[in-house]
Design the sequence.
């Protein structure tokens, strides 16, 4: 879809913006670059609050640094691990997080942590320097980077939580949550909310703690009793996250999610699911029967790449499932992805 170009209405400014747009290294990106420049110029022409300019400047700088850091690794799946910074190395949660990160790295995945202590430290320790990222945050009491990521070129320090949280979700493919405080719960709720509202692509969200722990049992029970039973969420929203029984179960769930499923793309009115293997006609028929409730209209149909995908050369060789999704029942969408993974 063609990007609509904005203008400032100031002839000289618009002329300079068009000239600067010529510096953009990508023809496809040029319209977005031009609109970004236009937005900044409009802000300069109409606003006088220094604080607003500082916020925009720092946000863009932080995102640009993160894009540059992650770009060389975009072809590898990544798992973000959250949990308390106060968890000591002697805690079973720390040890389980370290083991999980090591298994994920051995399975070909990279691991992203918040770069601090506790569970974050365990994740970087387990994944090792070649497979670790750290997204640290500047806090009044100075959250220092843990010794297993400090000095690494894959470590960034953010001023703002919102740019850091954006990169956690944008650059990862799965989320694991260990017991933690407000920050851990904040990240967990945001991850779930982004999937529930369609602002994030489907992903595994795993709740994990050692045997005998009751942290997630208590949390899940509270969600069901106080949020679900009061009608604040739908029953299928419970399937937006998965409470793993143990380390092996958590690992299996993450790896299984991407066994057949590859990615999702919205193309105009269609939702396109891409897979690494062809979906048998018998399974497509089964999906049309079992998951018709998530269709706005029409049917699930096998397909090759759509014209918009061909234009952008987006995984054109992968088989597709194309349908008109109602964009409401994302828990059911995850159920369908898991069914496909387990049926082939």
Sequence:
């Amino acid at each position: 879809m063609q990007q609509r170009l904005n203008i400032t209405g100031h002839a000289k400014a618009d002329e300079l913006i068009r000239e600067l747009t010529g510096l953009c290294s990508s023809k496809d990106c040029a319209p977005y670059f031009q609109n970004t420049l236009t937005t900044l110029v409009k802000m300069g022409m109409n606003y006088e609050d220094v604080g607003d300019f500082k916020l925009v400047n720092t946000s863009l700088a932080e995102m640009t640094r993160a894009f540059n850091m992650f770009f060389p690794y975009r072809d590898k799946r990544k798992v973000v691990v959250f949990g308390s910074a106060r968890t000591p190395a002697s805690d079973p949660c720390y040890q389980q997080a370290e083991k999980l990160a090591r298994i994920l790295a051995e399975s070909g995945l990279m691991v992203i942590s918040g770069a601090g202590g506790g569970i974050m430290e365990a994740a970087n320790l387990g994944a090792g320097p070649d497979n670790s990222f750290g997204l640290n945050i500047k806090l009044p009491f100075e959250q220092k980077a843990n010794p297993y990521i400090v000095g690494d070129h894959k470590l960034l320090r953010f001023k703002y939580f919102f740019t850091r949280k954006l990169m956690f979700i944008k650059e990862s493919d799965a989320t694991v949550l260990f017991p933690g405080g407000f920050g851990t719960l904040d990240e967990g709720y945001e991850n779930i909310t982004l999937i529930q509202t369609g602002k994030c692509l489907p992903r595994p969200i795993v709740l994990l703690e050692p045997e005998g722990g009751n942290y997630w049992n208590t949390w899940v029970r509270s969600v069901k009793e106080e949020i679900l039973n009061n009608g604040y969420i739908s029953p299928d929203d419970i399937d937006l996250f998965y409470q793993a029984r143990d380390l092996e179960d958590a690992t299996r769930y993450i790896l299984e999610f991407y066994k057949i499923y590859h990615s999702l793309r919205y193309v105009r009115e269609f939702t396109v699911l891409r897979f690494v293997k062809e979906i048998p006609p018998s399974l497509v028929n089964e999906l049309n029967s079992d998951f018709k409730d998530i269709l706005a209209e029409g049917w699930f149909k096998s397909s090759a790449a759509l014209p918009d995908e061909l234009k952008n050369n987006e995984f054109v060789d992968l088989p597709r499932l194309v349908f008109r999704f109602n964009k409401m029942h994302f828990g059911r969408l995850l159920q369908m992805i898991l069914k496909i993974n387990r049926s082939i």
Notes: The mean pLDDT is 96.
